[in-house]
Amino acid sequence: MKDLPTPGMCLLVALVTLGAPGCGEDDPASDGIPPAVVEDLVGFPLDTTSVLLTWTAPGDDGDAGRAERYDVRLARDLPAVWIEMTRLEDEPAPRAAGAADSFVVGDLEPGNTVHFRIAVGDEVGNWSDPSEVAGVAPFEGVDRTAPAPIEDLAAIRVEPDAIRLAWTATGDNGSLGQARDYDLRYWSEGIPGWDLATRVEGEPDPSRAGEPDSFTVRGLDPETTYQFAIRAGDEVPNWSSLSNVVTESTARPEDVRWSDAFAPHPRGMGIEGTVRALLVRDDRLIAAGLFHRAGNVEARNVASWDGERWSPLGIGTNGSIRAAIVYRGDLIVSGGFSSAGGTEALGLARWDGAAWHAMGDSSVAGDGPLALFDGDLVAARMHGVSDARLQVWNGSAWDSIPGCPLDVIAALTEHQGRLIAGGYGSFLQDDLQYDVYA
Predict the structure, then answer these.
(1) Exposure b/e, 267-302, CB count within 10 A at least 16 = b
(2) Quick one: which H or E segment has residue 14?
(3) pTM for the whole thing?
(4) What's the rounded Cα separation, in Å, for the pair 15 and 101?
(5) In angstroms, how far is CA 95 from the centroid of its own chain?
(6) β partners of residue 353
(7) Cα dihedral angle (279, 284, 290, 292), rounded to 10 degrees?
(8) Which residue in 139, 167, 268, 342 has its CB near the most CB atoms, within 10 A?
(9) 243-248 long-range CB contacts below 8 Å, 24 or more apart?
């Protein structure tokens, strides 16, 4: 067991992290370059109690890299002296240098101008100088500014009983901010239009202005022509005018074929890369392999699909995934990676639904196929010493399964109470070369 740090050691670490005077200044490895100053802080009213701040992200060292944190402060009156201003909470994490960043500030008084400044910090506690002051006032009285209309509604997939639609999200006030709700409707021949149209249930929450959104309308009749339109609303609600109207027909049942739902984005929600494992966990499709994007989201080598959109599993793995399996409710993956979710995990890791974890000394197991045998998790290394190539998880550590003569194990499964390993080997027995071993 490691020795616990003394209170003095803990205090020293905290001081160095905060970049306090006298801590780390003489260290040649210290980063002495602060982020650049934000020069384009601007505020826009969103409604009667909130405003939107926007700016361009600086870097970690001047205008290079990615900063660590923001310090956004507010003053009700001028002059807005930095040390006298109120620091706000829940500032966003900085994006890469040059990207657009934004922050919504609420709980303000209608019509009263407030003043903002922002500073930028790096990982060792170097801070930029505060920005110039940006003044903005929420709308006075009732917010009467509606979201801008959606102009690019399109049908991107057709099935006998469903049509998938996609569009670009609009804002809360015109094209600024983020709308609150969608109202998506459809109608068929004989229905005069929007007012008597059927409103769908379960529309997605609007994304930030300019980001892609999509939804599949289900429960439709085969071989039927439908028309679709959508509008966006804010918190008042003010509703946008109607989008463009899309006309599309459902397919015939006999025309059922492979869907293009996973075509490359934006036409579909495909994965940009190679998928090597597919399985279902908690009614979600899990895809794993070697990729960095699933649909319209960043996902490092593993992602989950809820039927409408992809979601990353934390920050994923730093290398490819070759195999995946569900074991006692958790997702187990193996492959050519050394970390998962930022945690060291040599070729094998466990996802519990919220975070990634290593599984004992994964250097003795993992990187190859996985299987369940008599309820236990079995992992294989594709190469290595034969007596250590197969391992079974005992709940806290890996135990070796000796004796498999295959030089390379490429597949594992259980069949009729026996563990079956597939691959190839150079050994000969009775003048035969075996590719499957039980």
Answers:
(1) ebbbbebebbbeeebeeeebbbbbbebbbbeebbbb
(2) helix 7-18
(3) 0.46
(4) 29
(5) 14
(6) none
(7) 180
(8) 167
(9) 243/149, 243/150, 243/151, 243/153, 243/167, 244/150, 244/151, 244/152, 244/153, 245/153, 246/153, 246/154, 246/155, 246/165, 248/155, 248/158, 248/163
β strands within 17-141, DSSP E? 42-45, 51-56, 69-75, 86-87, 100-105, 114-121, 134-136
Structure tokens at 180: 């609150």
CB 52 within 8 A of CB 116: no
CB atoms < 10 A from the CB of 189, how many?
A: 8
Lookup: tokens for 286: 């899990």
Longest CA pairwise span in the chain (Å): 93
Question: Are 170 and 240 in contact, with CB atoms under 8 Å apart?
Answer: yes
Q: Which amino acid is at 173?
A: N
Q: What are phi and psi of 8, to 5 degrees?
A: -65, -40
Residue 396 has which token pair? Answer: 């806290």
Q: What is the DSSP letter of 174?
A: B
- Of 296, 268, 304, 271, which Cα lies nearest the Cα of 158? 268
How far is Cα 322 from Cα 342, in angstroms, rounded to an integer?
Answer: 19
Cβ pair 409, 390 in contact under 8 A = yes
Query: Quick one: DSSP state of residue 237?
Result: -
Q: CB-based contacts of 191: which residues, under 8 Å, 6+ apart? A: 197
**What Å distances lie between residue 82 and 21, 71, 119, 136, 327, CA to CA?**
20, 11, 10, 17, 53
Per-residue pLDDT of the chain in tens (438 residues, 90 and over written 9): 333 333 322 222 222 222 333 333 334 345 789 999 999 999 988 878 888 999 999 999 999 889 999 999 999 999 899 999 999 999 999 998 998 999 999 889 888 899 999 999 998 999 999 999 998 888 776 677 889 999 999 998 888 999 999 999 999 888 888 899 999 999 988 777 788 899 999 999 999 898 889 999 999 999 999 999 999 999 888 999 999 999 999 988 876 666 666 777 666 678 889 999 999 998 899 999 999 999 888 999 999 998 888 999 999 999 999 999 999 999 999 998 999 999 998 889 999 999 999 987 766 666 789 999 988 999 988 655 555 578 888 888 888 888 777 778 888 899 888 888 888 765 544 443 445 555
Helices (H), ranges, 320-387: none
Could you tell me which of 140, 118, 135 has the C-alpha nearest to residue 49?
140
d(CA 360, CA 366): 11
